[in-house]
Amino acid sequence: MEKFDPLKMVELVKVEDPDSEGGLTLVFNDNKQVKIKIVDGKLVSVVS
What we know:
The protein is built from no helices and four strands. It has strands spanning 12-16, 24-28, 33-39, 42-47. It is flat and about 30 Å long.
């Protein structure tokens, strides 16, 4: 869960559902993003 530490107490400003890749993107202040999608039946998240 350490990969989500940069997002603690950061305001969520936009939700893209579905995003361009067919998943879900959460956009936070400072242009931080979490991309969520299902790959091979498992939930995968990427923080950028």
